[in-house]
Each structure stands twice: as C-alpha cells, then as structure tokens.
Amino acid sequence: MSRRTKHCLGAGVCLLAAGGWALAQGATPPSPPPADMQAAAGGKIFGKWCGDCHSTPGGSGSQALQRKYRGDIPDILEQRTDLNPDYVRHVVRHGVSFMPSFRKTEISDADLSLVATYLAPSPGRADRVTKRP
Amino acid sequence: MKLPPNVSEADFTAALKEFAAVVGGQWLFTTDDDLYLYRDSYSPMWDEADERTASAAVAPDNADEVVALVKIANRYRIPIYPISTGKNLGYGGAAPACAGSVVLDLKRMNRIVEIDERHGYVVVEPGVSYFDLYNHIQEKGLKLWIDCPSPGWGSVMGNALDGGVGVTLAPYRNHFEAQCGIEVVLPDGRMMRTGMGALPGAKTWQQFRPGFGPRIDGLFKQSNFGVVTKMGFWLMPPPENFTTGVVTIPRFHDLIPLIDIIGRLEQSKIVQGLWMLSSPTTGTRGDAAHGGGAPKIDPAILPVLTDPDGVNMDRLDAAAQAAGLPFWACEFNLYGPKKLIEAQWECICDAVGVIKGARFKLNEIRKLPLPADELKSLFDVGQFGIPSLRTFGLGPMVSYEGEDVVGHIFFSPVIPRTGEAAIEAMEVFAAIARKHKLPYPPLQFPSSIFERAFLFAVGLPVTRSAVVNAKIRDVFRELVVIATARGWGEYRTAPAFYDLIMETYSYNDHALRDFLGTIKEAVDPNGIMSVGRYGIWPRHLRDAGKNGR
C-alpha cells in the first residue's frame, strides 16, 4: 500500500529549531524563556546548521580550526569557552575562510542569537563542556 | 540605492513596496548588511567593480507568492534571479548573474509536498535540502534512499536544475535526469505543470516522464524561462547490501582496454554503481582495499612523482613495474542483494580478466545500514545516500600565491569515456597545474559520475586578493581554450564564466545561443527571468553579456 505523507518542513523546522517558542521576525516577543530552554533550542539549531562541520574532530570546520590554532584552543566549537556572541553572529553573517555566510532565510536573527548564546561562556555551558570526553 | 539595469528609482521603489506587500516587510531585504548575504562567498571577483551583486532580495513562502512577485517584476521589468538554498558554492552561491537583479530567495519554501514509498518518488519545493529530505525519510521510517551530492545543504531541486550529480546508482546520479514533473511560474506570472501534471487531477505526474506532446522539462533547467516551484524526483529502495570490489591492472596503457570493458558493462546495466580510478603508485585509495591502508610511496617511485617537469608516465610505468606495483586500481561500488553483488562481481572479473595481469578483490559484503559509529568514522557517506558536509575536509587548498584560500571554483569539462581521453586530460591539465604552481597531487583522475562520459573537474582556488583572483580567472580561460580545442565542453560553470562558456558552444554561428534567445524573447519578452544565467540574455541587456566574455 502506498504511504503518502504531507509535511511542512517550514513549521517543523521552526518548532524544532526554537523549542516551539521561537518567533517569526517582527512579532512582539513574550517573556524570555528559561536559560535551559534557550540552551536546548540553541543546541538544536547549532546541530542542524553547524554540527556537521564543527561538532566532531573530523568535521571540516574542526580541521580548519586545528590548522589555524594548532591545538592551542579546542577544535570543536562546543568545547570553546572564548566565543563572544557578537563574534559568532559576525562569523555566521560574514563567513570565514571556507565557511560561507548564512542568510536570514536560513538562520533567522532570532535563531542566530540562540546559537550565539548556546556557544557563549556560561555556567550551563561549562557543565556541557565538562560532560564531553 | 542600487538599481536594477534599465529601471528607474521611482519604479524600483514602487516595485519594492509591492514586493513587501506580498511577502511581508521582514522578507524583503534591501540594506547593505542584508545584501551582503546575497554575495557569492566563493566569488572570483570579490570586491571588484564587476562583482555581480543584488539590488534587493525577496523571500516568498509559497508558490502563490511567487506568482504575485513575478507579475510585479514583469510589470516593472525588474530582473529577478531565483535561488533555492543558495549554497551552490563554486558555481555561484546566492549571487545573481546580472548585477542589480533582485534575488528571489526560495529557501522559505521548504515543504516536502508528497513522498510516495510505493512508487518511489518525492515532490519537493525549492528550499528542501538533502539534509531535510534525508531526515524526513528517517523520521518517517520510509524505505527510500536519496542520491545526494556533497555537500548536503544543497537544494534537491536547485542541484538538479543546475545539472548536479550524486554518487549512488547510475539512474539516480544525474539529478535532472531523475526528475519527473515540474511546476513552474512563467515570466508573465502564469503557473504551468509539465508532463502528466498538465492533466488536472493527474494520477501519474511523477510516474510518466514523456507526458503529451514535446517534452519541455529541459527548458527549465537553469531557470532561464521560469521559476520552478515544485519538482518530482524518483527515489530508490534502500539496497540490502554494499561492498566494493577492486581491480588492479599492471601497465599504464592497460587503462584503454579497462575503460572500454567497463563501458560495455555499464551500457549493459551490469555495472551501475560509481567506480573510482586511482593509482597505487601514489598510494591513493583503491589500493587501500587490498591491504587495509594506503601503501607508502616506494622510494624509487617518489622522484618520478615529484619531478618538477611533471610525471613522465613511461618512467612511472617502469618504476611501478620495478616496484611490483600495479599502475591502476579501479574500485567499484556494488549494491543490492548478496547474490546480485556476487553475480555482478563475477561478470566484472570475467570481462576485465582478459587484461593480462589483472587482479581482483571483492571486499566483505556488508548488510545495510552500517552501524552509526562506523558511519561516523568514514570520510564520506554519500555512497550510502547520506548527506554530509565532509567534502569540505577533502584536501583543502590552504594558500595560493601567498594568499589564504577562501573557496574554489570548478572548471568542469566533460571528456570522452575512453582511456585515451583520460590520459590526454591528465597530461594537459597537469601541465597547466605545473605552469601555474597549483597545489594538486601528482596524478588526477577523471570521474565516472556521468553514465557515458567522464567528468574531469578541476578545482581552482579563490582568495580575497583581486590580483590572485585575476590570475585564477586567466588560468580558467586558458583551461577553456585548451579544452575547447580538443572538443571538450564544460557542463556547468561559475557566473563569472557563463558567457565565456556559452561562447564555446558556437556550432553553426551560435545556432544554439540564437535559438535560446528566440525562446527568451517569446517566453520572457520583458527579459526579467534569471537574466544572464548560463549566458542567456534578453535582447536589451545583451551588451552586459558581451562584456562578460
């Protein structure tokens, strides 16, 4: 029997990316969600857009950072504790080396802020880093 | 305010206002910061006066909004340039071919409209990436495989429209050939469906390609004559097993009968998976399957490979013989039931066995899917229908002429699927690489990715130095001249070279280009659609094309 599904990735991605509370640009923001929800949402967006290059030692972004820093700082972004949110936003919007820029139709400003927060130094972030091997 | 060509500020302002009314103000982009995102990160003309940048970008959510936007653009005669995911890096990215165009950013249209396991097809919108489609199939547990290129953030539709290819089975690798049914918004804003889709309520739109009457799907490849808003693709059932089989042959000129034999096996549909050439003399993969790792380069061979005058193939042949190494290795990807793989391999061994000294090794036949941990450890997973971005880790060119390399462009000629052509291409392109000190390995090999011809793609470095980029453009032009003189044409190129390449397709005083121009005038009389893409210009902007040659 034929299996047919109709599925809107747009809505799916929006819910996935921002834990169900991310807003379309231009809407009035409600109260900020708890920090752990923000981190979870930022982590999901990071996984979708950045993880393939930046979450494993063999990722092409990790390899590039290994060449650049020669192990002085971690190659894997989630293990870094020096990433300023403004710097993260700048790199995503301008690209660096082989990494191209990303448009707002790919990563919205709201989602980019969540990623920047996810990668920024914070108590929760320190916990995350220590859990990694 | 940057204006589109031949459009007044008043008209452009009015059009932008109407665009915003269709999509909402947040999806119309006009500031410098926002338009920076519509530059080609890998542009070989970065920051030069001739870099082709957008005047605005507008991002619709659905096909009805595309219709409305195209009608507005047509009324004001504003060139629009559709992109899908905008990640066609090396071939243009998200930037337009004609400076001042309004980019029609279709990334928000990311719906998987229909996926049918029984008949093996999917209908997608432009913004659906290979990652999206793969993840959807996994989440739903569907028994389907996709064929994906590297990298996986590309659009399923956009890749096909730009002639892109994948790495699994031959009927699925050429993505435009794997499509079945197109929905397109024509330059006057009218929506049309091709093939069986022209029949209201059609039940076989994605099952019968020819349709009724002339088959016109190819006209919409490259989006010169309309904005494609939906496209169907044939998908394959997941193969039960996978393995590779490696053939080695001893002598350099054995390549000629080898390619002929494989060609007959492919034409007979016995060989359907991708196969990769390599040379054990360089320790490249292929031979690795024989010994569990790439062999070290023999000390007697190394001086031949590193000769500043280039690799002399006769000397390399003799050195390989002396070292007891076969000159060529050919690794076949084999898919399907175990007994089919074994039968295919037996046919390959029988056929290639006529070459004296040929040796064969079939690796362990593995049940699919492979364990997740094992997949993680592989350099590439495209052969398993899994998208990734791992290709960016492949031999990066870190610097060239003292400048950091930030990207690449591809010189992508199609050459005959013969050993003679492969040898000739290896020699002539290696000579260019030596001449310009391009950081390539000593031997480069043609790709079998197309069914009946070789692709010999050469990646050229892009920097942020105008001087170095100008040199690379000169190298590119030199390559085009050399290839064209041998009857080798490029199948795809970056916008900086659209007109140069179109110029080479000049049979009978440019009959093809003139015919396309005739269609352009008939279908798109106001010249708004994908202006300049692949060298197709409306009459009133053809001077811009001439300047690009």
From TrEMBL, chain B:
The keyword Transferase does not apply. InterPro entries: Cytok_DH_C_sf (IPR016170), FAD-bd_PCMH (IPR016166), FAD-bd_PCMH-like_sf (IPR036318), FAD-bd_PCMH_sub1 (IPR016167), FAD-bd_PCMH_sub2 (IPR016169), FAD-linked_Oxase-like_C (IPR016164), Oxid_FAD_bind_N (IPR006094), Vanillyl_alc_oxidase_C-sub2 (IPR016171). Gene3D superfamilies: 3.30.465.10, FAD-linked oxidases, C-terminal domain (3.40.462.10), Uridine Diphospho-n-acetylenolpyruvylglucosamine Reductase, domain 2 (3.30.43.10), Vanillyl-alcohol Oxidase, Chain A, domain 4 (1.10.45.10). One of its GO terms (molecular function) is FAD binding. Signal peptide: none annotated. GO terms for biological process: lactate catabolic process. Keywords: FAD, Flavoprotein. PROSITE patterns: FAD_PCMH. PANTHER family: ARYL-ALCOHOL OXIDASE VANILLYL-ALCOHOL OXIDASE (AFU_ORTHOLOGUE AFUA_3G09500)-RELATED (PTHR11748:SF114), D-LACTATE DEHYDROGENASE (PTHR11748). This is p-cresol methylhydroxylase. The lineage of its organism: Bacteria, Pseudomonadati, Pseudomonadota, Alphaproteobacteria, Hyphomicrobiales.
